[in-house]
Specification:
This protein is mostly helical. The chain folds into 2 domains: 9-65, no CATH class; 81-219. The chain has 7 helices and no strands. The chain has helices spanning 9-20, 25-47, 53-64, 67-107, 114-137, 151-176, 183-215. The protein is elongated.
Length: 220
């Protein structure tokens, strides 16, 4: 942290801690609000007895603990939050894509990319199952079982694979829409695949970042 004469120790501490954390914006903001409230309360508890603000702020920061020592526990919490967010995204969008591909395949038995649709459906189903498992493990079972250390990475890379599959599906659906008898359905499926890809890919990228932060030496 900076040690300039005009730097607020509390604000400097919060800035340092915030910069070291990665995770969902809302969850991170809520976490930092709690830290800020705790530090402000600690400062006020001293200043009301006549302790100078600067001295009270330094004491509050010191008592709270070095940012690099408390950041790992905060990062673990944020990583779990991002894992759940990515799992929810996959759980919602991947089954929708699988159903869409199924409907297109059923509506046009002569569709040339039926085999590709089947493979993508398998990928989507696997990602969906892992997503549901992650939600259960990081939710109701948290009090009974520890969260697997590699779960965030598994969810991140599975969601990444699903996002790639959705991108491939979107391209395939776009190319074959003109050849399909039910081209409106095929075109709508392609649009849905693009939308699903955007949602899952962005969340998977954030989850990979959180997983890397959780594996860094500082987070151990």
């Amino acid at each position: 942290m900076s040690a300039g004469p005009h730097v607020d120790p509390v604000e400097d501490y919060l800035a340092t801690l915030t910069a070291s954390l990665h995770g969902p914006v809302r969850a991170k903001a809520a976490m930092m609000r709690e830290v800020r409230d705790g530090l402000v309360d600690a400062v006020e508890a001293q200043t009301c007895f006549g302790v100078p603000y600067a001295q009270a702020a330094h004491r509050a920061v010191r008592d709270f603990g070095p940012a690099d020592e408390i950041a790992p526990s905060f990062q673990r919490e944020l990583t779990i939050a991002q894992t759940r967010r990515t799992a929810r995204a996959a759980a919602v969008t991947v089954p929708v894509l699988a159903l869409c591909l199924f409907l297109v395949r059923a509506g046009d038995p002569e569709w040339r990319l039926g085999a590709l649709a089947a493979h993508l459906t398998v990928v989507a189903t696997a990602a969906g199952l892992l997503a549901v498992t992650a939600l259960v493990v990081t939710g109701p079972l948290t009090r009974l079982l520890p969260t697997p250390h590699r779960l965030p990475s598994a969810v991140a890379w599975t969601a990444t694979a699903a996002a790639v599959g959705m991108a491939v599906a979107a391209v395939a659906l776009g190319v074959t829409s003109a050849l399909s008898a039910d081209w409106p359905l095929t075109a709508c499926a392609g649009v849905l695949a693009i939308a699903a890809h955007g949602v899952v890919a962005a969340s998977a990228r954030d989850c990979r970042e959180c997983a890397r932060a959780g594996r860094s030496p500082r987070a151990r």
